[in-house]
């Protein structure tokens, strides 16, 4: 008998899904902490952890690398973010391997953005309770009180750049309309704010020229962009992407009128081009992988770009004048090679190196002396990280035969033909336009140490494998590939069973990975023995209705239109299959989340509870889209570990 396609099967059920979704859906409105009562927050406050789990997770949270950092213009200081104090704060190093000095403090997440060219000010961003409405502040480079540039309630203020003369800070903000961004200029000396550009749209500054011209970018979809040139007199000239719905990333090039553009317009993979007067000239050739990031020094003489090779980052440099490759001194054995900041004169560049066995290191390369200096080597207290399990690239077959790549971390005792059958935890990444990557992961090692095999699939819709793979799940097409979620479990149960013993399989994810988890537990009930969803979407229609306005248009291009694609969104919502849910479920959520409203977690919990399914809910009153504070991370990850130990390891 021929196999019916997933879309045909789901479509044939038609109105039944609409009806069941209506029954499962809990009415709610809005997002953020104000959309949930104090009594509800108290009811679902995370409970204290067992002492043994708490000790383990606290030790794991000490194994973290600082951010790669921003170099001062003279190359003598490095400013970086570090969460060692409990929340992300700004620190300063006054030389290689020096003792770091803490620049900012408190409970609010604070990150370094730039050092002004005159070396007088540090520009930082600060957010409150994960609301994702950050403000911009100035701080003297020697330390001291923060001076607000702009920080407004329910407004995203996004830094762009500091002018070459150190007079102005340019930024964008949705303070005029919640679903539109205007461009502003702030004068550091006087505090005066001037509107530079305020046409409606999701606008931002992609790059700037020394003569005052701005390269503006307008987001039109989850991937598509339009680029325009804003002259000093305020005239806007369309350049690239208008009406195309193409994926572009662009910056100014070396020659007048030239742009450097990465795009999938001419290939399944994202490649780099020179663009001038509508013509594209290849820079990186016929790569088999995506160019995932690129940038130049301020003089536009050196190009830096990073290629995503099957999940491994490989970075390169190119002389933009001669077109010849430039050699970078990468240490051997790195999983990831990434380019950090550069000084304004281009002499120094930060190189970031990551391996499976140690936290990321930051090194500084001096193009003049050709000397590489290690600046940051993070410590690993009470832990031998050389024993950590390295992720191995494997694959499993989808039901249509497509190989789905996955990274697998195995405990030593689970390796080999004579090894016992070990429980498996399948982790689906967020996005969905993200990608699971190999590298150093103390949190996954914690699960490996507990006896779990950890699997990170990159199902269709993930980034890093070409445009066709990335777009395979857009809109109603998600119905054709969502079965990749179930097929992971089908393969693991069959291929990793031994002597009739089938491994227990759990599923976990955050954001879109949380959505994948809820789908795994409902639409594909029985495929997984337990599931934990963090900030996951339960119902695509209620999510699109209540997510922050600035995100709604971009998410519609990814998931589908609530009116045109309403029925498909119903069929793709976990609440439509709540009657199938039977295995234990853990849900965690931040109250201030502007992306996935707290109402999504509440409606899923209430629907599961009504069925009598074992379900737990944790709501973090002072978090947004995921936990950022140390104490909350300890609680969330500790309960996830406790939950899977309880349901997958207990006999």
Automatic annotation (TrEMBL):
InterPro entries: 6-blade_b-propeller_TolB-like (IPR011042), AB_hydrolase_fold (IPR029058), Peptidase_S9_cat (IPR001375), Peptidase_S9A (IPR002470), WD40 (IPR011659). Keywords: Aminopeptidase, Hydrolase, Protease, Serine protease, Signal. GO terms for molecular function: aminopeptidase activity; serine-type endopeptidase activity. It holds the Pfam family PD40. Residues 1-24 form the signal peptide. Residues 440-648 form the Peptidase S9 prolyl oligopeptidase catalytic domain. This is Dipeptidyl aminopeptidase/acylaminoacyl peptidase.
């Amino acid at each position: 008998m021929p196999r019916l396609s997933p879309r045909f099967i789901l479509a044939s059920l038609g109105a039944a899904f609409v009806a069941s979704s209506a029954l499962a859906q809990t009415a709610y409105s809005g997002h953020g902490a104000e959309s949930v009562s104090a009594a509800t927050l108290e009811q679902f406050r995370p409970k204290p952890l067992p002492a043994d789990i708490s000790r383990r997770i606290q030790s794991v949270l000490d194994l973290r690398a600082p951010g790669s950092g921003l170099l001062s213009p003279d190359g003598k200081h490095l400013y970086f973010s570090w969460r060692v104090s409990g929340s992300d704060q700004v620190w300063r190093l006054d030389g290689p391997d020096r003792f770091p000095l803490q620049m900012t403090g408190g409970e609010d997440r604070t990150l370094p953005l730039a050092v002004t060219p005159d070396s007088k000010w540090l520009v930082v961003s600060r957010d409150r309770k994960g609301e994702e409405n950050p403000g911009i502040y100035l701080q003297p480079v020697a330390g001291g009180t923060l001076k607000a540039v702009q920080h407004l309630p329910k407004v995203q203020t996004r830094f762009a750049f500091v002018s070459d003369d150190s007079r102005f800070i340019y930024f964008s903000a949705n303070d005029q309309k919640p679903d539109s961004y205007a461009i502003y200029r702030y004068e550091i000396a006087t505090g005066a704010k001037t509107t530079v550009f305020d046409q409606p749209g999701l606008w931002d500054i992609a790059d700037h020229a020394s003569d005052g011209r701005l390269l503006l970018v307008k987001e039109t979809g989850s991937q598509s962009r339009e680029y325009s040139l804003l002259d000093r007199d305020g005239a806007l000239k369309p350049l690239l992407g208008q009406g195309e719905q193409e994926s572009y990333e662009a910056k100014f090039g070396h020659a007048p009128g030239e742009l450097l553009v990465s795009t999938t317009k001419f290939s399944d993979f994202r490649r780099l081009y020179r663009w001038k007067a509508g013509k594209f000239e290849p820079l990186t050739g016929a790569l088999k992988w995506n160019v995932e990031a690129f940038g130049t020094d301020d003089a536009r003489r050196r190009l830096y770009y990073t290629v995503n090779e099957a999940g491994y980052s490989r970075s390169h440099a190119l002389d933009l004048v001669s077109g010849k490759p430039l050699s970078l001194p990468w240490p051997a054995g790195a999983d990831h090679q990434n380019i950090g900041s550069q000084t304004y004169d281009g002499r120094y560049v930060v190189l970031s190196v990551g391996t499976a066995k140690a936290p990321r290191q930051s090194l500084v390369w001096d193009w003049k002396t050709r000397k590489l200096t290690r600046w940051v080597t993070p410590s690993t207290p009470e832990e031998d990280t050389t024993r950590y399990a390295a992720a191995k690239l494997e694959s499993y077959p989808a039901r249509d035969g497509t190989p789905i790549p996955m990274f697998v971390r195995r405990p030593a005792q689970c390796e080999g033909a004579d090894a016992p059958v070990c429980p498996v935890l399948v982790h689906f990444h967020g996005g969905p336009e993200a990608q699971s990557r190999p590298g150093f992961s103390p949190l996954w090692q914690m699960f490996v140490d507990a006896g779990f095999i950890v699997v990170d699939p990159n199902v269709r819709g993930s980034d890093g494998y070409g445009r066709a793979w990335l777009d395979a799940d857009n809109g109603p097409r998600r119905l054709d590939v969502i079965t990749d979620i179930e097929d992971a479990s089908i393969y693991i149960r069959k291929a990793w069973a031994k002597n009739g013993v089938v491994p227990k399989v759990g599923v976990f994810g955050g954001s879109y990975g949380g959505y994948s988890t809820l789908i795994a537990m409902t639409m594909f009930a029985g495929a997984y023995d337990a599931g934990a969803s963090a900030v996951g979407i339960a119902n695509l229609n209620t999510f699109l209705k209540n997510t922050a306005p600035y995100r709604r248009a971009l998410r519609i291009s990814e998931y589908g239109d609530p009116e045109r694609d309403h029925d498909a969104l119903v069929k793709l919502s976990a609440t439509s299959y709540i009657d199938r849910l039977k295995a234990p479920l853990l849900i965690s959520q931040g109250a201030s989340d502007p992306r996935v409203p707290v109402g999504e977690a509440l409606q899923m919990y209430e629907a599961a509870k009504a069925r009598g399914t074992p379900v737990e809910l944790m709501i973090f009153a002072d978090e947004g889209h995921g936990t950022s504070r140390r104490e909350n991370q300890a609680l969330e990850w500790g309960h996830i570990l406790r939950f899977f130990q309880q349901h997958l390891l207990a006999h």
